[in-house]
Every structure is written in C-alpha cells, then in structure tokens.
Design a protein that fits this description.
Order of helices and strands: HHHHHHHHHHHHHHHHHHHHHHHHHHH
Mean pLDDT: 78
Shape: elongated
Number of helices: 27
Radius of gyration: 48 Å
Strand content: under 5%
Low-confidence stretches: 1-8, 14-29
Length: 548
C-alpha cells in the first residue's frame, strides 16, 4: 500500500523535475518525458492509443472511479490526500499545453476546437454541479472555517493573477506602438465601412422574429431575478437600514471626492484647452457648428417630422390608456392626487429650507451672493429675450390679425361663466373672511385707520402741490388740450342714451330702487346731476374756444 507521504514525495519530486531536474530526477519529469517520448515513437502504441480513444466509453469512467475509491479505501484516500500536488501538476500541464498550442497553425487549432465542441457530452457536463453540490454543502457551507479558508485561497489566487495580469498589461502598454495600432485600426475600420456602403440586404424575417421572440422571456426572467433579489431583502427595517448605512459609511468619501476633483479638473482642462486652441475664442463653437451643420444636412427632415407626428399620436394613445387605468376609480384618482400633493409638499419644504438657510446667512455672505449674481446674470440678456419675443409676437399678429381675437373668443366661449362666477364669489368671501380674521388686517380696515391713511395721502398730495406750484394746472391744461371734445361729448351722449333706453324698457327699476334712494339723497343726486351738466358744458365751451 502506498502511503500518503510517499505519494506526496513522488509528486513533489516529479514537480521538481519540471524546473530543470533536481532531487526528483529519478522519478520526476526527467524520466516520464523520456518514457512518453519513446512510446510516441512506437507506431504500434500510437495506433492502439488512438483506437482506444476513438472507442472510449464514458460509462467506464464511472466504473473506474467506483473501483478506485472502494477497492482499497486507504489507498484511494492517500491518493486523494495528495490532490493539491496533483492539482499543481495538472495546472503545470495545462500551462505548458497552452504554450505549446500557440506553436500550431490556426487551421489546426480551429479543427481541434471544432472537434472538441462537437464531441463533448454536454448532458454529462450539466450533471457535474448536482454531483458535487452535496459534497460542497457538507464540506464548505456547513463548515465555516473551511469555507473561509477556501475563499481566502481563491482571493489570494485571484489577487496574484490580477497582479501578474497588471504587470503584463503595463508591459504591453509601455512597449506597444499605439501609432501603428491607430493607423491599422483606422485603415481596417474604414475598409469595413466602405464595404457597408449601399443598400443593406434584407435579413430573414423568420430569423428576426425568432430572435426577437427570445427578448420577452429574457426580460421576464431578468425581472423575476430582480424581483426575487429585492424580495430577499425583506429584512427587518432596522437591520436593512443598518446594513445600508454601514455600506455608505464604509465607502471612502476621500476616494469619491478625488473622483469629483478629477472630473472637475478634466472639465476645466477641456475648457482651458478650448480657449487656448481658439486664441481666447471658444474653439468648440466652430466644431459644434460644423458637426451640427453636417448632422442637419444628413437628416431627412420629412422623415424626422413624420417621426415627431407619430410620437405625438402614440403619446396621446399611451396617455389615454395610462390615464384610463390610473383614473379608473375615484380611489385610484385620489391616490394619484395624494402622490402629487406629497411631491409638491416635499418640493415646498425643500424650497423653504433653502430659503431659511439663505435668510440666516451673514451680511458678508449675502454681499458676496449679490456680487456673484451681478457677475453671472446679465439683465441685458433678459431684455433681449423680451425684445425678441415682442418682435416675434408682432410678426405673428401681423401675419394673423385674427389669431389673438380668435384664441380669446374660443377661450371665453369654452369657459363656464356660472361656475367661474360661483368660484370667484366663494374665493372672494373666503379671502375676505380670512383677511378680516387677521387682527392686523381688521385693524387696518377700521374707519379711523382708513381715515388716517386718507389724511396722510391728502397731506402728501398737498405737499407735492406746494413744492411744485403750477405743475398740476399745467398737466391738467395739457390733458384738456389733448382730449378730443367731440369724442367726449359723443361718449357722454351715448352713455346717457343707453341709460335712458334701459330705464325706459325697465321702468320698475326706477320705482323700486332709484326713487327711494333719490328721496333719501336728493341733495347728493342734485350735486351729481349738476356735475354732469357742468362737465357737458365744459366740453361745449372747450369746443367753441377751439373753433375760434
């Protein structure tokens, strides 16, 4: 019986021979390659080996393993105990195999890969995970120390592979001639692009349909995976929150800040380079103009317009369908409104918090903000926007004089006047109630307070007139000189005629409303009539003076 130590010694000596001989030269690779070499040189051995490999039965492997394991358990366990060295031996074998395969031509390798893929028993390969799953579960998942050791080993191996790969890629990066690579890739891609000129050939619609038919199951599977992943996070709230918070705290914000700084530096460098290349003028402007011009010249405007029309129509359909489901019931509509109100409330709270922070700034910071605002915001640009909009509006109204009247007519005709009047009435009443309920507003509307404000206004007016003697007379004279007396008289006549006509058609108004009021206020009514007569006489007088 071969002991485990002896087997490990044999494999160790064999591995030592791979490094160029040494202590294991008697039983290691120095003897084994020679034996293999002599066997390969023997035609009969090669013929027998090929015949055996062509007719090999995979079922014999299962019988061989059972025989090996259970015929002599101690021996088989000793051999399996030396598996790390055996694995290293196999790894070395695969490494050397890969190096030697690089010496073959592409045709031979393609034929080898084709046969490899054709002859592999994929069904048996699919059974490998299920065969080793119980063993892995017992040895690793139920033994935390063994699992940790395996993960640590895999991590160390992966780290060593990454280090080796990093050195290789760095060496390639430092030694490769990227100028030649650029020229070669450019020539190849341009040649390929030239081959794609002309009308593309139509693909097989059946094949396209079958390929697209894979998308829904794939999407459904992806959604199911995401859903189950999120459902698996259905942990107690405090545990989930603690895990997420710990994750955020473990992220190195210094590295995150470095990333932001690097991006800021990149943007700043691009901007400075833009000015340097353009000699203090933005070079990007010319580049963008050329790119935009070429893009617009090559875009089919009619097709683009049809696309927009199609999107508009499809968007309307989608909106109708979605709104039909969202607002299907009063409860769902109320929930949508609640979500909108919550969003508005959150935005208002955020805006209020921002304004609170601004209001708490010291005067120096506010002065700095004013300077920044004055530096960044040019009121002339706002004036340009207003001017251009005015020019555009004038052109639109000149082209369509009926545009605004027609728009307003349609708008007014579509309004529910009764509902608007009712809403206005309720709003006015509620606003008045709210205003009067405020002590400050109520106090300001007291007659004494109103009288004081009138007195203050009169005093201010008198002070203005005293400081500017003759100004009011001059302004009044200029206004009277400008007024068209004929139009004034005509307006008064039309107004009086309309009032008399209305009263004549509804005489009951005079009996029910006008007479009692005039009886109680005869003197004010007479004064008003006298004022109206004086106004008409003044108009006639001004008219006669102008004629002279």
């Amino acid at each position: 019986m071969v002991e485990q130590a002896n087997m490990e010694k044999i494999l160790k000596e064999a591995a030592g021979g791979a490094d160029g001989g040494g202590a294991g030269a008697g039983m290691g690779y120095s003897a084994l390659p020679g034996l293999v070499r002599e066997l390969i040189r023997t035609p009969g051995f090669k013929e027998l080996l090929l015949i055996h490999l062509r007719d090999v039965n995979p079922e014999n492997a299962a019988e061989l393993v059972r025989t090996f394991i259970w015929e002599d358990v101690a021996f088989s366990m000793s051999v399996l105990g030396a598996s790390p060295s055996l694995v290293n031996w196999v790894v070395e074998l695969l490494l050397e195999l890969g190096k030697q395969l690089n010496n073959f031509t592409l045709d031979i390798l393609k034929d080898f890969i084709a046969r490899l893929g054709k002859d592999l028993d994929t069904e048996r390969l699919k059974q490998l995970p299920s065969a080793y799953a119980p063993l892995v579960n017992q040895l690793l998942l139920e033994d935390r120390e063994a699992l940790d050791a395996l993960i640590a080993g895999i991590g160390a191996a992966a780290e060593r592979m990454m280090q080796a790969g990093e050195r290789t890629w760095r060496k390639i990066w430092n030694t490769a001639d990227f100028g030649k690579i650029r020229v070669g890739l450019t020539a190849h891609l341009e040649a390929r692009r030239a081959e794609l000129d002309g009308e593309p050939g139509l693909l097989n619609p059946v094949a396209i349909s079958n390929l697209l038919g894979v998308v829904p199951p794939l999407a459904n599977y992806t959604l199911r995976v995401i859903t189950r992943a999120l459902q698996s996070l259905n942990l107690p709230a405090e545990i989930l929150a603690n895990a997420v918070f710990q994750l955020l705290e473990d992220i190195d914000m210094a590295e995150m800040g470095g990333l932001v700084n690097a991006l800021a530096g990149l943007v700043t460098a691009l901007h400075r380079g833009n000015l340097v290349l353009g000699r203090d003028e933005p070079r990007f402007k010319g580049v963008l103009e050329r790119v935009t011009r070429e893009l617009v010249d090559n875009v089919d405007g009619e097709a683009f317009r049809e696309m927009l029309v199609a999107l508009k129509e499809d968007g309307a359909v989608i909106g109708q369908v979605v709104s039909g489901y969202i607002y299907a019931t009063p409860e769902s509509t109320a929930q949508v409104a609640r979500a909108l109100y919550l969003a508005v409330g959150a935005a208002l709270r955020s805006a209020a918090e921002h304004m609170r922070r601004f209001s708490e700034l010291p005067s120096e910071a506010v002065a700095a903000m004013d300077a920044y605002f004055e530096e960044a915001v040019d009121p002339r640009e706002l004036a340009r926007i207003i001017n251009y909009n005015a020019v555009l509006l004038n052109k639109a109204l000149d082209a369509r004089p009926d545009l605004l009247p027609g728009f307003m007519a349609k708008l007014l005709a579509s309004l529910d006047n009764e509902a608007l009047a009712e809403a206005g009435k309720k709003i006015a009443l509620q606003l008045s109630d709210a205003a009067l309920s405020d002590p400050a507003v109520k106090a300001a509307l007291e007659p004494e307070a109103v009288g004081e404000r009138i007195n203050a206004a009169l005093a201010a007016f008198n002070a203005f007139a005293w400081r500017n003697p003759g100004l009011l007379a001059e302004k009044a004279e200029r206004v009277l000189a400008t007024i068209n007396v004929d139009e004034l008289v005509l307006a008064g006549s039309e107004l009086a005629a309309a009032a008399f006509t209305a009263l004549r058609r509804h005489p009951e108004v005079i009996g029910k409303a006008v007479k009692p009021v005039m009886a109680k206020a005869a003197a004010p009514a007479a004064a008003a009539a006298a004022a109206l007569g004086a106004l008409l006489c003044a108009g006639l007088l001004i008219r006669r003076l102008r004629k002279r």
